[in-house]
Amino acid sequence: MTRHHEGLSPALVETIAGLSAGTVATFLVHPLDIVKTRMQTAALYRGLTPNILGSASSWASFFFFKERVERIVLGLKTSTGNTNASLTPQDYFISSGVAGLFTQALTNPIWVLKTRMLSSDRGAVGAYPSMWVGVRQILETEGWRGFYRGLGISLFGVTHGAVQFAVYDPLKKMYFRRRKRLRTSDQPEAHAQQKLGNEATLLLSSISKLVAGAVTYPYQVIRSRLQNYDAEERFGRGIQGVARRTWQEEGWRGFYRGIIPGVFHHGTFRYSKPFRGIAVLSKVNNGNGPVESQKKQESPPQVQVMGRAKDRRNLKIRTYPKFATFEEGCGYWKRHLAAAFRVFADRGYDEGSRGTSRTGLVVEGDELINTATFTIHSAIHRARPDANAACHAHSVYGKAFSAFGRPLEMITQDALRFHGCHAVHDSFGGVAVDRAEGERIAAALGPATRPSIGHIPTPGAVVLQNHGLLTVGRSVDEAAFWFISLERTCQAQLLADAAAAASYEKNYIGDEEAAYVVQEVGGPDKGWLAFQPYYNEQMAKTRGAFLG
């Protein structure tokens, strides 16, 4: 296998992202924060140092713990044997909640200092002239417990994320439903997948953040008052004392003092999210990119008309993307090749791989060449210039079916993908190290088109007698999907043969029906499209660890 550098760990990248976002966003919205705090408890940049330190360290810690907890949750799900497990919205919520608890416990001392500095003028009695003076005074007068005043109510703030998720997900579904209704028949569907753009993400995130901030605002008022250095004298003792006194003296309005700058503070913080995108892009460059970031590097899928629906709208499907430069295409092919290797490995098709040119020059890795692999694949690429990818492995059902040395029977819909376009290489000469053997296998693939259905390019598949299966395609995605489908079709054929041996009768699909169906399920675009769920599965399961 080829070697690659892992680059920065996901947890470190998330930490850098949170640090950047927290620092810049806090600097921008600090005036709103001090207005909010003074209105809650009662030089716009007084207390800026602990505010920046608190926000930066909080978001850095949050993303660090969130990444670690997500990995633990995913590990627990896959440890049961479910290799296709992925994180659900509930898993992300749990991970965010646990990360929030750890973060709040670690950063509470900073928030105590920030609140006390923001709630008083520099010259006021008992006010801290600087953050470090505040640290010393708290230790001398209250001990280390003074740094954790208001921690209990702060932990309640983790529910902020629950409200935000509860608002964000329905808003996103409403957005997609509305976009679908507004899309007309003559508008190309540039993004067939449900994916939010930057503007929509900013809008929906801001709305959900504002709602969550407004709903959970009373806890912020109580927390700010508890963290004042003269909290007991001014507001009461403990959570219940502060809440009771606030209600008695100010009524329900007291729990919402400063809400206007408060909710705008939460909303404007979302503008810092692009700074996280800078770090996320670095994950792609280091081979650890997440799904969304990776997709942004690929050209949007093309669409083509595939008939009309009952409401007379054109039916469109995604097709193989076009690239502005050769380098862009190479990056795309390599990412999808890496994903195909993982898909094959998950299914037990991993017989080894090497990266060589058609002449045998090693272009990736530093291992020895697999002579048999090179003999077969180089001959195929010489004979079929249209075949940019070839897949061959000794899969279980493919090997079993190859022992019969016969073609597939058209008895299932999946088998129709190979109607008139698969062959049997009925000669077994041992390990294919002879160039002539590779050329015979390539010749068995036949021409690049199927005369029976015109100019639709053939997938190309060969059953190698006593050996295994081989497929080709114009893209890695196409060739990989044909192989997966051929393997499963061989499995169905073997099961049907076993049932037939017990006197059950097979029902064969006629040539006319087969010729019609193959136009619907065959062709390079259909093969490429059918592989995309497998690619997305690998992206979700590995968080893009195979990119690079």
Q: Would you mind describing this structure in some detail?
A:
There is one protein chain. By secondary structure, the chain is of the alpha+beta class. The protein folds into two domains: about 10-180 and about 195-265, Mitochondrial carrier domain (Mitochondrial carrier fold, Alpha/alpha barrel); about 325-540, 3-Layer(aba) Sandwich (L-fuculose-1-phosphate Aldolase), CATH 3.40.225. The chain is about 60% helix and about 5% strand. The protein has helices spanning about 10-40, 50-80, 90-120, 130-140, 150-155, 160-180, 200-215, 215-225, 230-235, 240-250, 260-270, 275-285, 290-295, 325-345, 370-385, 395-400, 435-445, 475-500, 510-520, 525-540; strands spanning about 300-310, 315-320, 355, 360-365, 390-395, 420-425, 460-465, 470-475. The strands form three sheets. It has a four-stranded mixed beta sheet, with helices on both faces. α1 packs antiparallel against α11 (about 260-270), α8 (about 215-225) crosses α10 and α18 (about 475-500) crosses α20 (about 525-540). The radius of gyration is 31 Å and the shape is elongated.
Share of residues in strands: 5-15%
Poorly predicted ranges (pLDDT <50, ≥5 residues)? 1-7, 34-44, 184-193, 267-300, 303-310, 449-457
CATH superfamily of the largest domain: Mitochondrial carrier domain
**Main sheet: strands, sense, barrel:** 4 strands, mixed
Strands, count:
8
| Overall CATH architecture of the largest domain | Alpha/alpha barrel
Shape: elongated
Solcar repeats: 91-174, 200-283
Protein name: Class II aldolase/adducin N-terminal domain-containing protein
Organism: Monosporascus cannonballus
Membrane topology: Multi-pass membrane protein
